[in-house]
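Anyone have tokens for TX264 protein? Sequence:
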Amino acid sequence: MEHQASVMSDWVLLGLIAALVVLLLLTVFGFVVYSGLFTEVVVSAGSPPVSNITLAYKFRVGPYGESGQLFTDGCSISSKLCSIGVYYDNPHTVSPEKCRFAIGRILSEGDAKPSEEQIKRFQKYGFKIFSFPAPSHVVMATFPFTTPLSIHLAVNRVHPALDTYIKVSKCGMKSVACVRWTVRGFSC
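Reply: yep, here.
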């Protein structure tokens, strides 16, 4: 009788462990899906979603996966501003140590001017300030940035989608390096 109870409790314990493993795997799968695993990269060309912008940014050279810390740096200074990422190189053709990127926060759009206080706060933490003129025509890629894993998924999916779009549409660009990928609505 004791042996049967021991065997039954072993089966119950194994069942609980199996259930926990299944729940853990489902949680991980849900996180990866939420991060954008099955989300389509939408590429389009036309009028830009923004006019001229002034931004505070930091420039780096290295693997794009290291850009997450720069997003965090910008959010820690001002969580109410939109983030922007400018990725200059195609990571499928340029070695990761040579990839260039600038990450920052949009301080103002259109005719609005950023406050001097805002500019000084970002400069205090090593950000540079730059104003982009309004572009007349852009190629854009949209991909969600919901978790830190999203940036890794995007690195592997956005540039190939842009390459394909540029080759198929023959829009006159020589490479994806001409295209800027903007991340908007990043929540800190």
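Residues 27 and 54 are 40 Å apart (CA to CA).
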